[in-house]
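tl;dr need the bound structure. longer version: we got a ligand (3,4-dihydroxyphenylalanine) that a collaborator sent over and nobodys looked at where it sits. i said id run it. heres the input, straight from their email, havent touched it
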Amino acid sequence: MLDKINSLMADIQALAASTPEEVEAIRIKYLSKKGAISALMNDFRSVAADQKREMGQRLNELKTAANEKLAALREAIAQGAEAAAADIDLTRTATPMPLGTRHPLSLVKNEIFQIFGAMGFTIAEGPEIEDDWHVFSSLNFPPDHPARDMQDTFFISRSPQDILLRTHTSSVQTRTMESQKPPVRIICPGRVYRNEAISARAHCFFHQVEGLYIDRNVSFADLKQCLLYFAREMFGPETKIRLRPSYFPFTEPSAEMDISCHICGGKGCAFCKGTGWVEILGCGMVDPNVLEACGIDSKEFTGYAFGMGIERITNLKYRVKDLRLFSENDVRFLHEFDAAK
Ligand code: DAH
C-alpha cells in the first residue's frame, strides 16, 4: 500500500492542466468517490493495526497534496485568463468606421458666418435657379451686358422669360430687399454657376458670400471698417486692407479689396507676385437704381454691399492649388483639414 501511495504522490506532483475541463478530469480521477485516492481509503480498512497510524498519515498527506495541486492548477488557469483579458481593448468600436471631417469650404464659410455674425449680420438665402430680374435687371445690368451672354450664364429656358442658374449671390440682395424693410443687415452664402471651362483655376460652379447693409446714413467709411474687421479676424490682426476703384453695375462707387499678403507680410513673394497684396473681394455703395428697383427710397436710405468667393478665401488660408479638389470628394484631400476642426 505504501508503494501505491508513493507512486500516486509522484503522479499528482507531476500533473499539469491548461483548461478548467482538464482540472475537473483530474479531480474525478483522483478525488471523486470512485477515484484512486478513495480506492486507497477502502484498502486502508485491511491494513494491519500496527501500521494503521502511519498509513493513515500518509494517506492524509496524499489527499492534501491532491487538493493543493488542484487548487494550484485552478489558480494558474484563472490568472492566464485574466492576463488574456487585459490585452483586449474594450474601448474599440466593434465595427470600425472612418470618421468624416468638415469640408474646407464649410470650415471657411462657418468662420465667415461667425465674423459677420459678431457684427450683427444674419444669414439670408435664395434659390440657385433664378430669373433674369433677380440676377441681372434689378441689379442695374444693362440689357446688352456681356454677363447675360450664353458664354457666361447657364440658361435653363429663354421663354416666356429667362430662367438661369444664378451667376452670383447678389440675387439674394434683391430678394431680401423686396421682402424686408430697412434696416437690412445680411450675409448670403451659396453656390453660383458660370459657363467656364473647368481647370485648376476656374470651375463652372463655386461658392460666394454676399453682404448687404441698408439703413439711414450708411457710408463708405462704414463699409471700410466692416471689411477691415473681417480681414483681421480672418487673416490675423496685422492684416492691412486696400480699396481700389472698380466697377460693378449694382454699386456706385465700386471697389475691389486687397489684403496685405499674409504669406510674406506685404514684402512681396511668389504668392502675391511680388506686389505684397492679394485681391479678396468686390464691394461698393449700393447703386440708388438697385434700391429703387427693390422699392426702397434711395433718398432716405443708403447701403453698402460686398461679395467674395469662398474658394478664394479658402485658397488664401490653406493654399489649395487646384480648384477641382474642392468638388472631387477625395478623402485624402478632405483629411488634410482634420486638424482645422
Ligand atoms: N457679384 C460680384 C461677382 O460675382 C461680387 C460683388 C461685387 C458683390 C461687388 C457685391 C459687390 O455685392 O458690391 O463678381
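gonna send this back to them w/ a short note. DSSP finds eleven helices and ten strands in the chain.
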